[in-house]
Amino acid sequence: MDMNTLPDNPYVLLTPGPLSTSKGVKAVMLRDWCTWDDDYNGIVQQIRARLVELAGGGDYTAVLMQGSGTFSVEATVGTVVPADGKLLVVANGHYGDRIAKIAERLRMNHALLDLGEVGRAEPAAVGEALDADPAITHVAVVHCETTTGMLNPVREIGAEVKRRGLTYIIDAMSSFGGIPMNLDELGCDYLVSSANKCIQGVPGFGFVVARRAELEKCEGNARSLSLDLYHQWHEMEHKNGKWRYTSPTHVVRAFAQALGELEEEGGVEARFRRYTDNHRTLVDGMRKLGFSCLLPDEWQSPVITSFMNPDHPEYDFRRFYGELKSRGWVIYPGKVTSADTFRIGNIGDVTPQGMGELIHAVGESMYWNHKE
After folding, report:
1. Beta-strand pair 341-345/332-333
2. Per-residue pLDDT, 4
3. Predicted structure pTM score
4. CA-CA distance, 201 to 176, in Å (whole number)?
């Protein structure tokens, strides 16, 4: 297939996912696949094995789950916390709050450690919450909270969790594949992520990398039929990659291509360097234009950055967004309730050179500084 015949996107997505994908990822979705055929299910098995490798190997296994990343978060929480368990949700943004909302909707015994949208999840605070409530059996935290771009110290939090012999769940939705991590070193029992984030696939399924011995204990726990993580894993494990219900075949094939492209780039370490360079180019350029970041640099992830809105009477985000989009760049509105912000992502099929071009476009789009 001549990938040069594929049309170019009219703009680059600078979001935390969906994000801009390569022509190679787009191209492989032009073929149809049969869900029961060994050719297809063999790809599923290769993906599962590769995900475990990316997570550091060891006695872990992987399971794919239809839907957006939130479906996989709900499948994990709803399956691994037993009826007599209690979940502590460590939240400092919208996505931590969503985990708590899932637990509430499932009528699950849970507690919320709410640190505010710009408060960091400090390990000592987590330890104090655990000591105050001996009923807690499971702890969940978001690694990269894309509400702000905050990177939480999951290794140090994991030490607090495992010191007390509890089960540790990490929502690494927007960080896995783009930030190096070893699950065993983090003390992580379940890591949840999605196809359309740092591995640079397209939306349609999420995945969970789980400590095998922990997942094997979960039969019968699930509060949902379709979001039963254990039975989805059992089906894939014992039927050569078969999904229980209709598989998103084109998305799976695109993800396999994206995994290959990650390897060609040099693996997670190389992708992390590119994302870090993207972030540095972005922040340096935006600061020169007069923008300031919401978070301190030491708390900031290389995935997405929140910028304060300009303090100018003529500034309007929708107009600024439209100006940038007309120049080929799409950014994200802010999600923080306590500050007026917008967000720019650094992940996807974009390079530091591209981020430099973005900075030029931002300068041209600052209509409030332009004189007639």
Report:
1. antiparallel
2. 58
3. 0.95
4. 13
